[in-house]
Amino acid sequence: MPKIAFLFPGQGAQTVGMGRELDSELPAARSLFDRAGEILGFDLRKLCFEGPAEALESTDVSQPGIFVASLAALESLKVSQPDVVEACQGAAGLSLGEYTALVFAGSLDFEAGLKVVQARGQAMQAAALATPSGMTSVLGLDEPAIDELCRRVAPHGRLWKANLLGPGNIVVSGETSALAQLEPIASELGASRVIPLKVAGAFHSDLMKPADDRLAEALGSTAIAPPRIPVYSNVDAAAHSDPDDLRRTLVAQVVGGVRWEDSMRRMMADGFDTFYEVGPGRVLTGLLKRIDRKTRCTSIPAR
Predict the structure, then answer these.
(1) What pLDDT, on a 0 to 100 scale, did the predictor assign at position 113?
(2) CA distance linking residue 17 with residue 46, whole number of Å
(3) Distance CA 48, CA 46 (A)
(4) What is the pLDDT of residue 135?
(5) CB–CB of 282/253 below 8 Å?
(6) Distance CA 252, CA 112 (A)
(7) I need a surface site. Which of 82, 87, 175, 264 has the fewest CB within 10 A?
(8) Taking the model in full, what pTM does it have?
(9) Strand locations in the chain, DSSP E?
């Protein structure tokens, strides 16, 4: 018997049109977008379906949008393959996706999860606006080389390793002045490619510290239950069951690095061999194949 886990995408997976077909075909998906508009106080459906892309890329819009679109994709899986949903024994989510995973696992209900995601997105957007900054994917360097890259770039601005996604695939966050000097130094160290990401700021870095208190306050007033299945944390690749531990790791995640490769390897070591990426895009499927080509992963899109 396969051991099944669900993976939920994070910011950057947003595309104009995500969830539109599900909204028109599936009453449960339509209900999610209806409720989201009431909870958020703005028309999330219109922004997700029609854009413009610039508005959807804003952190305080893209995070709720991906969260709701991913849950809409989950509703489609409940209809098309209910046995798969029933058989799922674990979950993880990349950054924002960890909140979606916790809703699926029963730790958060939809409304509470969406309100926290909204607070998180607003806090991170405010922190991003405070300092010109961004994120860049660096391909072809291992973690020690990324540490050296951060040291060499330091005279130009602050730079942090943010997302450890897979072998030779690490995302750095930093001030715009540091990112502007990144490519030649990364190439000198052996990087094969440097790709700026479409995000509003330097997420998972010290520049997000102003967002900590607001997120901690939002989580502190939110009911969180022990998950019914393991949800693997971005911060330490461990599955936590105590609600206070979940709050702690979710706050730490905003400033700390995302150890995605470690999380996937931990899940595989725990016997998971069949994965479903539930939500917009196919990024997590691609990452998983680079970590272990033998692992099965199926994409359930937010079409």
Answers:
(1) 98
(2) 9
(3) 6
(4) 97
(5) no
(6) 19
(7) 82
(8) 0.96
(9) 4-8, 88-93, 133-139, 159-166, 169-175, 193-196, 231-232, 258-259, 274-278, 296-300
Its domain, for residue 144, covers 132-196
Tokens for 296? 């099965």
Residue with tokens 């897979």: 166
Phi/psi of residue 233, each to 5°?
-80, 140
202-217, pLDDT tens digit by residue? 999 999 999 999 999 9
Tell the residue number behind the tokens 């900054």, with chain if given. Answer: 133
- Tokens 């700026």, located at residue: 196
71: confidence class by pLDDT, cuts 50, 70, 90: very high
The percentage of residues in the chain with a pLDDT greater than 90, rounded to a whole number, is 98
Instruction: Give one DSSP letter per residue of 236-298, joined into a string.
Output: TS-B--SHHHHHHHHHHHHHS-EEHHHHHHHHHHTT--EEEEESSSSHHHHHHHHH-TTSEEE
The position carrying tokens 């393959």 is: 81
Regarding beta strands 88-93 and 231-232, do their DSSP bridges make them parallel or antiparallel, or are they unpaired? parallel
Long-range contact set of residues 185-192: C-beta below 8 Å, sequence gap at least 24: 185/149, 185/152, 185/153, 186/138, 186/141, 186/149, 189/141, 189/145, 189/148, 189/149, 189/152, 190/140, 190/141, 190/145, 191/138, 191/139, 191/140, 191/141, 191/145, 192/139, 192/140, 192/168
Which residues is 172 bridged to in the sheet? 136, 161
Chain segment 115-129, per-residue pLDDT in tens: 999 999 999 999 999
Residue 59 inside a domain? The answer is: yes
Contacts of 280 (CB under 8 A, 6+ apart): 9, 13, 14, 15, 18, 66, 69, 70, 73, 301, 302
3-class secondary-structure state, position 102:
helix
Element (H or E) spanning 27, and its range? helix 27-40
The CATH number that applies at residue 166 is 3.30.70.250
Q: Do 78 and 139 fall into the same domain?
A: no
> Within this chain, do residues 55 and 122 fall inside the same structural domain, yes or no?
yes
- Residues 252 and 245: their CA atoms lie apart, in Å, by 10
Please give the average per-residue pLDDT across 132-146, as a whole number: 97
Cβ atoms of residues 29 and 76 within 8 Å: yes
Q: Known catalytic residues? A: 95, 204
